[in-house]
Design brief:
By secondary structure, this protein is an alpha/beta fold. The protein is built from 11 helices and 10 strands. The chain starts with a strand and ends in a 7-residue tail after the last helix.
Length: 380
């Protein structure tokens, strides 16, 4: 039984990863200060109130010493006080990272996973990363670090994150090797989407502006998603889907040949110039279903709609199966998905870590690929 504990837990990416890998596990404790995150976590993971903490600073790791196999977390990065210039544990005091390090000292887990944004390496001119490395060394843990991109582990999203893996004992650890990407973002889209996710005229103009497209602020029908963001719902910088209305049959649209005839300016008609998509329709004729009469009949162009990603699609792009229950508003779900860790990356990491920290017989863990994240799985 793998015993896991998490701080800055979010919606439980590591818990979901372990579940997808079918590893027997027990959640020793979890912690997050967001009440909406707590709702999502409790709806999806086996945990009770006595094992949940709202504030990492209030956790006493003493009672959990020797009872945790792996501690996982990713504290917000903050500048450290470098007055003493020890560049270690004492310099980390007053920050949330200090509490992550403190819990490692108090709990003495067999291993830890620390995740953060790529920019942590250069934060505060590199001093933050300097303190973090010195702290892990001071704690006596053998650690390894690397930048991993979700697109290299089966998820069509450009999301680079820093992962630090530490072990209490010296072990032969190597980060998982990249695998070919066999899915596109389009493969992870829902079949039917509510009208509320489609953009209005103002939103379409902003998203399709050449400036935003050139600078990669926005992307339409991309194969690989831009990095998911916590403010996905309100920030029009991100991924958008362009698709035609699905509620109108193809048979009602004009063929290319007929359309040229209908829209020809030389066609004799009652009006000076043929037009489509009229605000006020022309009088309906009894014969309009039999023949096309330019300037008289009413025609609608085969326009396209642009929409944002749905919360479920965002979860899929973070590696969460459709078995993950959505129990909060769209606003909260966008934020929670954007703040999470990509599940597939954690699955690949656990494939390397699990055999090194458990006394259980080694199990064969399949590295995530198309056979693991194919769409059929999302229905399970």
């Amino acid at each position: 039984m793998l015993r896991i504990a998490t701080v800055f837990s979010g919606i439980g990416a590591i818990e979901h990863a372990i579940e997808r890998l079918h590893i027997p596990n027990e959640i020793v404790f979890a912690c997050d200060n967001d009440p909406f995150v707590k709702q999502s976590f409790f709806a999806n993971h086996a945990i009770t109130e006595d094992r949940w903490f709202d504030n990492v600073q209030n956790i006493d790791g003493g009672p959990f010493k020797g009872k945790v196999d792996i501690l996982v977390g990713g504290s917000p990065c903050q500048s450290f006080s470098l007055v003493g210039k020890r560049r270690g544990f004492k310099d980390a005091r007053g920050t949330l990272f200090y509490d992550f390090a403190r819990l490692i000292t108090e709990i003495q887990p067999k291993a830890f996973i620390f995740e953060n944004v790529k920019g942590l390496l250069s934060h505060d001119s590199g001093k933050t990363w300097e303190v973090i490395q010195a702290t892990f060394e001071e704690l006596g843990y053998n650690f390894h670090w690397k930048i991993l991109n979700a697109r290299n582990f089966g998820i069509p999203q450009n999301r680079e994150r820093l992962f630090v893996i530490g072990f209490k004992k010296k072990v032969k650890f190597s980060f998982p090797e990249p695998i070919p990407l066999e899915l596109t973002m389009q493969n992870l889209l829902e079949d039917y989407v509510e009208e509320k996710y489609y953009l209005g005229e103002k939103g379409i103009s902003f998203v399709t502006s050449q400036k935003n497209l050139d600078k990669r602020y926005t992307q339409i029908n991309g194969d690989i998603a831009l990095c998911q963001k916590a403010n996905q719902q309100f920030n029009w910088h991100g991924d958008f889907i362009l698709n035609p209305p699905k509620d109108i049959s193809e048979k009602y649209y004009l063929s290319e040949k007929v359309a040229k005839y209908v829209l020809s300016s030389g066609t004799k008609n009652f009006y000076s110039e043929p037009k489509t998509d009229l605000i006020v329709a022309r009088p309906l004729l009894a014969s309009m279903h039999k023949m096309h009469r330019a300037g008289v009949d009413n025609y609608v162009t085969k326009g396209a709609k642009i929409r944002k990603l749905t919360p479920r699609e965002c979860l899929r792009l973070m590696g969460f199966s459709d078995s993950f229950k959505i129990v909060v508003s769209d606003t909260q779900m966008y934020r929670q998905a954007g703040n999470s860790i990509v599940v597939n990356v954690l699955m690949a990491i656990m494939g390397q870590v699990y055999p090194l920290i458990t006394t259980m017989p080694r199990v064969k863990i399949k590295i995530p690929n198309r056979s693991i994240i194919r769409l059929q799985e999302y229905a399970k």
